[in-house]
Design a protein that fits this description.
This protein is an alpha/beta fold. Helix content is 30%, strand content 16%. The chain is built from 24 helices and 27 strands. Belongs to the glycosyl hydrolase 53 family.
């Protein structure tokens, strides 16, 4: 238990002769704590303003979190995810392993340049040769659909677009087959839609189709890009060319097949889930349709695979020289229910492919719209990044390409939790040193379904995990009413009293002390923004009533926490009040503490809050929080507080190595030293360090740059920074310790592809730094940049002491393993006075309760 006592000692003979002073400690219980983190929001806004970034920089769909309805296990990482899939028996060179690239040209050369896609590999690196890459993933056939004279909107179906892709395939290093699907229509055709091209008549349709086929082949041969296969129509059963008489339809197909065959190109037919396949095969035979492949387009359901196996048997029994395959199919990679992901997609492809193959049939399938970047069913996402599900084609052949992908994009295991850390003992760090973490967002995260895990990987209470790793203090911010008139959260953890109580009750189970940080606002209070609570705005010009508001809210809140069993060790009145508080901000001077009229009013508010603390929780320390280590500001502020008799014990600072500069540690030492000379205790109430420079939830991170700081990015850097910081704080006897700001504020759903879901959770539960509902209370300039919303998810996920899935990093162990002594210390504040009781200077001395010490007083001139 940390304790401190204030001794006033007059200057006299004892001091003149520099005699030793023997002091016996009284058992006065006082403990310490620390504070929040809100300057983050102001700095975030500055970041957006200077970089032009928006929190909506990842326009992709949410995906890949929960398992599918088929109970496909989602692995921690994609690297070895498909090794369980064995080579399919009977698969070979003749098996069609196809990818439909019809949309490819539209994606790489769109009319609108903003829509242009750059195709990339699984690790988001641009591809020099996409066809070589997809071949490495097991694809051996590229399919292109072609319409006769498509409209401008359907230009992706034009022969010119297909020829561009065929030329690209030709120029590629890939040895890959091509399949051209001639639709014999001006638009896409389906089972019940086989519309003739504009200008073709039913009477002359077959002749027109023959001439068209001849013309297309001639153009392709002239460019040396003739395909390996031409498929006659799409989803044609008995209505080719919209011919009503079935026999005429079959005869027409036969005549076109003859033209294709004469050009040494193989022929495929594409049907639409036929119920009478045996009869159709017989009719094709009677009409003398010469074809090599018989395909069926599918819209899969639970019975699809068994249906395909039955079709395969019918083909084997009735057309033994024809290869049966699936000519078109696709599966969800993303869906609104979050039951689809790359693993369910790959599993579905593997099982269907298996159903097409046996010792009699080489089989295969063509994946529809495979290259349609952004489609929820394709093999490429909105960013053009390849999806690892495509590699299932290689695994089905017994090959194992590398399926590693960017873990921060997809929510895979980042590897952070496996990184081991070396932790050095911190001199003067004892069992009574504040080893605190701010976890204000915890309640909101729990409501959104976030889970945490212990050091053994088992799901556990966050507070238990913290306690097991040596954390003895938590910090909780308190907002008055963080909701709009509809009861919708402003976000940022929705930190009203109720949310804080949930955290404090859980902390009490593990004997963890609590610092309550009052912002006296309905949302973030920081150096740039100090807004009055909505309910207090009517009293803003009535100083007496405002003081009463502060006193009553503080006291009523503390009473609720006491009743809940919270161990309140410290109370922070105001948050980062360097430039003002509760709507009163500096204007004419360097800081508000140089403006006597304003600072006097603010000091009355601080005193009102402090009075409530003394009356309700007399054993708790009172802290005032500034956001910097500026000694000039410290002097101005402490002079103002002394002038107005503000009652407080601790001056707390925010200190972030990536913002504080190379002299941070020396500035921390000097700050503690100066605060001690004014007779006060010192703590760093906010700090953190980067575990990564990557975004894990789709919202731009507040800090990605180390700005020249000496620490490595990662868990080891976190431990090193904390070690150095504690050494600097504890180099002075008035140093209490520090609080790591929001060390458990992880994404609701890991992976920045899940930006949309995380934004929705921010609006519903308040899990992000701000919700859309804050508009109208919080400044619009903070919530929008260039009219684009910057509210949303978590801007702190790369600074936590947990990975983005809730597993503790080894750096968290610092709070347990850096302790060098189990001794419990207290502080004695010694006021050195002249004979008229005027304080000449202060000294803060660290002592052990119940034990005597010998302390040598300094010379006083």
């Amino acid at each position: 238990m940390l304790k401190y006592i204030l001794l006033f000692i007059r200057k006299g003979k004892l001091m003149k002769n520099n005699h030793n002073l023997l002091m016996k400690m009284k058992n006065l219980e006082k403990f310490s704590g620390a504070i929040k983190r809100c300057v983050a929001i102001a700095m975030a806004s500055m970041l957006f303003a200077t970089t032009g970034f928006s929190l909506d920089t990842h326009p992709v769909k949410a995906q890949e979190v929960s398992s599918s309805a088929d109970k496909i296990e989602v692995p921690e990482t994609s690297k070895d995810a498909f090794k369980k899939y064995e080579k399919i028996s009977g698969i070979g060179e003749d098996t069609i392993l196809g990818a439909d690239f019809t949309y490819y040209q539209q994606c790489v050369n769109p009319k609108n340049p903003e829509w242009k896609k750059t195709y990339k590999d699984y690790m988001s690196q641009p591809l020099d040769d996409i066809f070589e890459y997809v071949q490495e993933q097991g694809i051996n056939t590229i399919t292109l659909k072609v319409a006769v004279d498509p409209t401008e909107n359907d230009n992706y179906l034009s022969l010119n677009e297909a020829m561009k892709t065929l030329k690209a395939v030709k120029q590629s290093k890939a040895k890959i087959k091509t399949n051209l699907v001639l639709l014999y229509s001006d638009s896409m055709t389906y089972a019940n839609k086989q519309s003739l091209p504009n200008g073709w008549t039913k009477e002359d349709a077959v002749k027109e189709a023959q001439d068209y086929t001849t013309e297309v082949i001639a153009k392709l041969k002239a460019e040396d890009i003739a395909p390996s296969i031409i498929t006659i129509g799409n989803e044609v059963n008995c209505n080719f060319l919209d011919i009503k008489k079935e026999w005429d339809s079959f005869v027409g197909m036969a005549s076109i097949a003859e033209i294709i065959k004469k050009n040494d190109i193989k022929v495929a037919l594409s049907l639409s889930k036929p119920e009478n396949l045996q009869w159709l095969i017989e009719q094709f035979g009677y009409a003398k349709v010469d074809y090599d492949y018989l395909g069926v387009n599918l819209y899969p359901d639970d019975e699809t695979n068994s249906y395909v196996e039955n079709l395969k048997k019918i083909v084997e029994q009735n057309a033994s020289k024809v290869q049966f395959f699936v000519s078109g199919v696709q599966y969800d990679r993303v869906n609104d229910k979050n039951t689809a992901n790359v693993y369910t997609q790959a599993d579905s492809v593997y099982k269907l492919l298996s159903a097409t193959i046996d010792e009699k049939n080489a089989g295969g399938l063509i994946y529809t719209d495979a290259a349609y970047a952004g489609s929820w069913k394709s093999f490429f996402d909105d960013e053009g990044d390849a999806q690892v599900s495509m590699a299932i084609f290689a695994y089905a052949q017994g090959n194992q390409p590398d399926t590693s992908r960017d873990p921060y994009k997809y929510g895979d295991d980042t590897g952070l939790k496996q990184q081991k850390v070396t932790i050095k003992k911190v001199q003067n760090m004892s069992d009574s040193t504040i080893r605190g973490i701010d976890i204000s967002s915890y309640t909101a995260l729990k409501k959104a379904g976030v889970k945490y895990y212990d050091n053994e990987g088992k799901e556990a209470s966050l507070l238990k995990v913290l306690s097991d790793n040596g954390v003895n203090y938590i910090r909780i911010r308190i907002w008055n009413d963080p909701y709009n008139e509809k009861g919708e959260t402003y976000g940022g953890g929705s930190n009203d009293v109720k949310a804080g109580l949930e955290i404090a009750k859980e902390a009490a189970k593990y004997n963890i002390k609590v610092l309550l940080g009052f912002h006296y606002s309905d949302f973030w209070a920081d150096p740039a923004v100090q807004l009055l609570p909505k309910d207090w705005k009517k009293d803003k010009d009535n100083q007496e009533k405002m003081c009463l508001n502060v006193y009553e809210f503080t006291k009523e809140t503390l009473e609720q926490f006491k009743d809940a069993g919270a161990d309140i060790g410290m109370v922070q009145v105001g948050n980062e009040i360097s430039q003002g508080m509760m709507g009163i901000m500096h204007k004419t001077k360097a800081n508000v503490w140089q403006e006597e009229e304003k600072s006097t009013i603010i000091d009355s508010y601080l005193s009102a809050g402090a009075r409530a603390v003394r009356e309700c929780t007399p054993d708790a320390l009172v802290a005032i929080h500034l956001d910097n280590l500026n000694l000039g500001m410290y002097k101005d502020a402490m002079n103002a507080w002394e002038r107005d008799n503000v009652d407080y014990d601790v001056l707390g600072a925010s200190s972030y190595a990536f913002w504080a500069g190379k002299n941070m540690l020396e500035n921390v030492r000097k700050a503690g030293e100066y605060v001690a000379s004014r007779g006060k205790l010192f703590a760093v109430l906010e700090t953190s360090w980067l575990n990564s420079q990557k975004d894990a939830d789709g919202t731009v991170n507040m800090a990605n740059n180390t700005n020249g700081a000496v620490y490595k990015v990662g868990p080891q850097g976190q431990a090193d920074m904390l070690s150095d910081l504690y050494n600097a704080i504890l180099s002075n006897d008035n140093g209490l310790g520090a609080f790591y700001w929001e060390g458990a504020w992880i994404p609701v759903r890991a992976g920045w592809v899940n930006w949309k879901y995380n934004k929705e959770m921010a609006n519903e539960f308040g899990t992000g730094w701000a919700a859309e509902n804050a508009e109208g209370y919080y400044p619009t300039s903070k919530l929008y940049y260039n009219e684009n919303p910057v509210w949303g998810g978590n801007s702190w996920d790369n600074q936590t002491l947990f990975d983005d899935k809730g597993y503790p990093l080894d750096s968290l162990r610092f709070y347990r393993d850096a302790i060098s002594s189990n001794t419990k210390y207290s502080r004695v504040v010694v006021a050195l006075c002249d004979k008229n009781n005027n304080v000449l200077e202060y000294r803060v001395v660290k002592v052990v309760p119940g034990k005597s010490i010998t302390y040598t007083l300094p010379d006083i001139k």
